[in-house]
Design goal:
Elements: H1 2-18, H2 22-36, H3 52-76, H4 79-92, H5 97-109, H6 113-131, H7 137-147
Helix pairs in contact: 1-2, 1-3, 2-3, 3-4, 3-5, 4-5, 5-6, 6-7
Length: 150
């Protein structure tokens, strides 16, 4: 039930953000993140295979909630919240390029391009080391824009 309500709040957050209401979007996204929480679902059933679908849905909803909180916070000018949410996403999954881009954006908005570049370099090294690939084109373009002070 909480996951369903959190998903509805994320839809509302996206709608509010698209309509130009970032503070309202941030409120809805923060509510979704609070409902999802960082704890695994059905933790009292650690070995039950029937819980796997709920756990996968939880992880994805948690990821999307962090992204939405960070994006809405950036647009609302709440950069501390943006950094916290994006960093939590990167910590949970160092290969999450969307979370890395959000963290880079938040650092740039804080006028800390060096930190943004460090996030990119960590992502690049992780992708190269674990998967033997480079970041996506959009992530590389963002990196180049930061280097050019665009």
């Amino acid at each position: 039930t909480d996951l369903d309500e959190a998903a509805e709040l994320l839809v509302a957050a996206g709608t509010r953000l698209a309509a130009g209401y970032p503070v309202r979007a941030l409120g809805a996204a923060t509510g979704a993140l609070g409902l999802v929480g960082a704890e695994s679902v059905l933790a009292d059933e650690p070995d039950a295979t029937w819980t796997e679908a709920a756990r996968v849905a939880h992880r994805e909803l948690l990821r999307r909630s962090r992204h939405m909180v960070a994006l809405a916070a950036i647009r609302a000018g709440d950069l501390t919240t943006a950094v916290t949410a994006a960093r939590a996403g990167v910590t949970a999954d160092p290969l999450d390029e969307a979370a890395c881009r959000l963290l880079m954006s938040a650092y740039c908005a804080l006028d800390e391009p060096g930190r943004a570049l460090r996030v990119y370099e960590n992502l690049r090294a992780t992708l190269a080391g674990e998967l033997g690939c480079d970041p996506a084109r959009v992530t590389r373009a963002m990196h180049l824009a930061i280097l050019r002070d665009d």
